[in-house]
Structures are given as structure tokens and as C-alpha cells.
Design goal:
- By secondary structure, the protein is of the alpha/beta class.
- It folds into 2 domains: about 5-135, Rossmann fold, CATH 3.40.50.720; about 140-215, 2-Layer Sandwich (Alpha-Beta Plaits).
- It has 8 helices and 11 strands.
- The protein has a 6-stranded parallel β-sheet with strand order 3-2-1-4-5-6, with helices on both faces. It has a 5-stranded antiparallel β-sheet with strand order 7-8-11-9-10.
- Helix 1 (about 15-25) packs parallel to helix 6.
- It is elongated, with a radius of gyration of 19 Å.
Amino acid sequence: MKKKKTYAVFGLGRYGRAVAKELVKNGMEVLAVDVDEAIVNAAIADLPYSKCADVTDIEVLKQLGVQNIDIVIVAMANNLEASVMTTMLCKELGVKMVIAKCSSEMNCKILTKVGADKAIFPEKESGIRLAKNLLSSGFVDIIELSKDASMVEIDVQPEWEGKNLMELNLRAKYSINVVAIIQNKKINTYIDPSLPLDKTMTLVVIANVNKLNKLKVPVNTLDTTE
């Protein structure tokens, strides 16, 4: 059985807590950390692995076992210095994926330069949306169109290569509609259902959110403020 990824969320404001709760709700192991003890105590009911700690200290990070965590979300956008330091230390400890929340586009650029693998400006991405992206390992991105429908980019899977959309019958199997194909950075909304798919393509689909979990495909890497 494939090992579940482990997560850490640093900063339990509205955004950080939303990410952590969504991950926990879906059965993920999440280390939730904030420097404010009152915030940590308030979060324990929803986030069992909550700790009060200063994540700008590398020794503290080591004690928390951050070097063994797959994905760290740094959700301390109100403190750029702490975000920068934490991001750098996590990368120094070997964390493969560090996602940093930013308070401005400029801060996103700064955090990317110091090592963040993904920088998120909350006016553009929500905590819940980030969690859904992380959980759906194979969805390149998720955009919620409504309560029931989402638009998703899906990589062409190895077992789909060489087959066309008529053969795959994705609509019948997964209740999804392919609305475009991205290839070589070009988006083609005219879809030839007889065209064989290959690994250089990304499918843009609209699907019922309740059906998305049926898509057992491998993500790269989810509207709240802090």
C-alpha cells in the first residue's frame, strides 16, 4: 500500500487552520503548530497533533521531526521575517515541498527566492482549495465553480496513452466532461474524440465534486484570508 504523505501547518490563523482541518478530515496525518498557546489550545479539538512552538528555531523544528515530513505549509503571512526563516530552515532540513502563504505579490516573490516551492496569495487561493489540491494527487489544479461542480486539470495517465476519448469513455466512468486539452503550453478547446492521447497532454475537465475521488490518478501538488 502506498504510504500516505505527512503534513505540517505552521500558523493556525483562519487560513492555516482551514488547510489543516481539511487534511485531517480526509484522514491525513497533520502536525499543526502556532507560537500562540491560546490558538493552539483552541485548535486541539479539530487538530489532535497541535503544538505550541517557535518554528523559526532549527532545533525546535528538529525536535518536531520536520525533517521527516513530506509537505510543510507556512501560513504566517502576517510575519514575513518568520515566514522567510521557517521556509529556509525547512528546506535546509530536507523538506521536499514547502508551500508559503503570502500577504502580497512581492512577498510571494521573496518567499519563492528563499526556497518556497509554491507561494500562495490568499486573495487568489483558499486554504480549503490548497488542501484539496494536495489531497487529490494527480489533479494539477482545482477551481470550484459551484457547490457541486469543479474544473480540474488532469495529467494523461500511462494507461490512457495511445487511447482516445471515445475508447476511454471518461464521461461514463467518472461523470466528467473534457472541455479542453493543453499541449505544449497551448489550450485547444476543439477536441477531436478520435485523437490518441499522450503524456504531453493535460486534460481540462468539469466534474461533479462528489465524483472526483473516483479518479485515482497520481498532484503536483486549495477563499479565505488569515
